[in-house]
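I'd like us to work through together how a protein chain folds, taking it slowly. We need material for that, and I hope you will provide a protein of your own picking. Go ahead whenever you are ready, and we will take it from there:
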Amino acid sequence: MKNKYLPKYLPLMCVLLITAVVSCKKDKTTPVNATPTSLGLFELDSAGYYRVFIPLSKIGTQTINDDLVFDTGSAGLSIDASGTIPDSLISKTGFKFTGDSVVINGITITSQTGEMDYGDNTDMTVVKGNIAYASITINNNASGITIKRVPFFLYYAAFDVQNGNTANETQLESHSVDIFGVSPEYSYASNLIQSPLSYYKPGTGLTNGFKLAKLIKADFTSGGVYEQSILTLGLTQSDLTSNGFIMHTCSYTSTDGYSPDIPGTISYSGNAAISANFLFDTGTPQITIIEDKTANSLGQLPNNSVVTLKTNEGFTYTYTATSTNNITTVQNPRISGDTRSILSLEFFIDNEYLTNYAGHQIGLKNN
């Protein structure tokens, strides 16, 4: 997109009226820098698995009061149509309308279909739906923010598929795969869909992106705890240059957009370091996955195994895997079908995380 600039000099026109000379002046205003917006997230321990949710109170004109998984490992808003539009318009095989699109409850549903796949070849969740557009409101206790005209994935069915066998797929309950994906890449459903936060306009002087503070381990309880102001929208210059974040430039492809995968090395259990691509994923609850194509022994690492990862840009993180904390498994990509080593939600208890949508960067910070 080309920038549009005002001419360097603006002509001044002065009018001489008989003997009176009227001089012309140009008003000068100083732009006021905006303040970053703080939002809360909901921490929950669900049957031994940690989860982080973001509260959505409205989509289009429809009030929903839904908590969605806050997911740095995928892109785009994905939400069940049940309770969002009338059930009479939903079937197990698609939405019931004709033409290119329809507007219901302030939501524009297009005829363009898509599919979201989560997991790997051994255990996959398949979600089917259509591309849609609507404004969304993120609740922040008494207040909230509204982001206009967000493209998202409105799904009508979700299935659990084991070992790639779609003949034995099991349909999941409504709203079981509601995801708020904030990765900088395109959505798997369509490259028309990206992170909902990327459409937020933070204001003058701020860069489009978000900063996630360190999560609080003690607040992952069965009842859950709402963490005030743990998520910040709008990045300052100091966030990007002097606040201790190590910045990683995202690689780009026309099919996937800007990848959240960060190259580096990883070592575990005293083994030599191997090359890796890291995905730092709040959507993966509590079990970190190391992909090692040279591994002879697969499965969960023994108690008190030390794991060290290093990114090519110099970020380093070391942790100890036990049977209850930082649980870590080793897989072979020939079996899993995934070459990424995935750092689970527990990574975010010890570290801060930043995404710069405008500059296509991911920042990591030890804390």
